[in-house]
Amino acid sequence: MNEFEQMKDDLLGRIERGLKHGQAKGAKSLDLYIIKSNELVINIDAGIITAQRGGTIGVGCRCVIDRKVGFASASGITESSVDFAIESAISGAKINQADDRWESFIQNAKTGKEGIIDSSVLDVSSEEAVLCADTIFQEAKDYDPRITSVSGGVYVGFGAFAVGNTEGIAKASATTGTFGQSYITAVENGKTKTGFDYIMDRGVPSFDGIGKKGAEKAIKLLSASSLGKSEQTKFIFDPIAAGQFIKTALSNSVNGKSVVEGRSSFADRIGDQVGVETLNIYDDGQILEDPNVQAIDGEGYPRSTTPIIEKGVLKTFIFDNYYAKTYGAESTGNASRAGPQSYESLPTVSPTTISVTPGSKDLDSLITEIGNGILVTDFLMGMMHSNLISGDFSVVSPSSFVIENGEVKHPLEAVTIAGNLYSAFNQILSFGNDNELTFMGKVPSIAFDGFTVSG
After folding, report:
1. What is the mean pLDDT of residues 251-267?
2. Are residues 289 and 206 in the same domain?
3. Distance in Å from the first CA to the final CA of the chain
């Protein structure tokens, strides 16, 4: 049995010992989060390829005494590190102010499905990963002499985390994953454009084509021309742009913390029609091929598939344990430990993977159907600067194209797109059938009506 196969059992053993230590120190109510991961990161920075091995290993502890919550963390998972985090959390709980909302840690004994575990990830050497990154670099450089810079990289990782508490919960989840990306710069006659491509997998995919596709996008944008006007028109957002848009629209409106604290425009709208009848959105923590999928959330609650909007009707919000109890609901398995050193953070409400039910038409059919408008591809700049209370947004699309008479004609210089995140749910015309899994979710191309474009 290799290190990875033993990892969950090892972490659960440390959880069991740590809980006993905390109780011996007088802590009647505490939880522990312990994580161990291994990462191989290959960076391409302006043509220079570097390799770095690392990972995350540490422990976080919450202790509650008379509704006073103490939290502490420590790097490492030795007995001394775990004991330090526990004893520090106990000390903090004794002096902090009481939280009248506090009720208890999770008590749900169920566990969600584990994502696909691909052991081939464990066998990737630094040399192999560097060769993959070099493939990305060479493809891009060889594509066209106008390519001036290649950046990006390859990430390969595996690991596990465990959560336990004095309510009788002890659970663990493991993951494997690979990610590759390219950021390509092309220059011609003083004009600079960038292209992007990526791949993500629970195993080890082929990296062929990532550099070439990124370069192709950058070169295509060199022929961009200005829109030269401002107007309301129809749009098609590709899966990355649509995923980014939908994820932003939901980031505050259905977040249980924002709902409880009165900062969500959807706070009193459960059961209301908030979008077109063909709109179905789920927070899906059980897409087993998704590198982000785990069996449990950051508190040990089972990951699940939560219906947020069905047939345009708002069904529920997403919660961790704390805000679910405050609201009077059940957790939806959306407790996240944020940041690169996740053990250093308290659980917070966060979506897993946003999933939108696709339509039946391919992208070409959507383009033909809307007739005239704008095709938006890849990332939107400034999306998270939107007003998440009112929903008003104004973003820049650096990679968009004119649609005329049902055909994509030519690329555009960067355009500004403005509208309202929440009204947009009722401005959806149709969905594509291309709901590919991206790091923005599993979202198809979406056609909208009525945004304003200028450029």
Report:
1. 97
2. no
3. 60
Tokens of 33: 């989060």
Same-domain check for residues 135 and 276: no
Q: Is residue 340 part of a domain?
A: no
Rounded Cα distance between 173 and 188, Å, is 49
- Tally of structural domains, the chain: 2
pLDDT beyond 80 at 2: no
**pLDDT for the residue 436:** 86
Whether 337 is in a domain gets the answer no
What tens digit of pLDDT does each residue of 307-345 get?
A: 999 999 999 999 999 999 999 999 999 999 988 899 999
Q: Is the pLDDT at 420 greater than 80, yes or no?
A: yes
Backbone Cα Rg of the chain = 24
Centre a 10 Å sphere on the Cβ of residue 130 and count the other Cβ atoms it contains: 17
Q: Would you mind telling me the total number of residues written for the chain in this entry?
A: 455
What is the rounded CA–CA span in Å between residue 207 and residue 46?
Answer: 19
Pairing status of strand 170-188 against strand 191-201: antiparallel
Using DSSP bridges, classify how beta strands 313-314 and 305-310 pair: parallel, antiparallel or unpaired: antiparallel
* Strands 348-349, 335-336: pairing kind: antiparallel
Sequence letter at residue 5: E
Range of the domain at 234: 230-295+305-317+353-454
Tokens standing for 425? 């749910």
Tokens of 270: 């459960």
Is the entire prediction scored with pTM above 0.90?
Answer: yes
| Beta-sheet pairing, 230-237 with 373-376 | parallel
Are 296 and 34 a contacting pair, CB within 8 Å?
Answer: no
User: How distant, in Å, are the alpha carbons of 160, 259, 359, 364, 428 from that of 278?
Assistant: 38, 25, 9, 20, 9
Kindly state the percentage of the chain with pLDDT values over 90. Answer: 96
Return the closest-CA partner of residue 379 out of 191, 149, 196. Answer: 196
Closest to 30 (Cα-Cα) out of 79, 91, 75: 91
> Measuring CA to CA, which residue among 232, 254, 235 is closest to residue 377?
235
Q: What is the mean pLDDT of residues 146-175?
A: 97
**Tokens, residue 208:** 């062929």
Which residue type sits at 334?
N
CA atoms of 225 and 229, how far apart (whole Å): 12
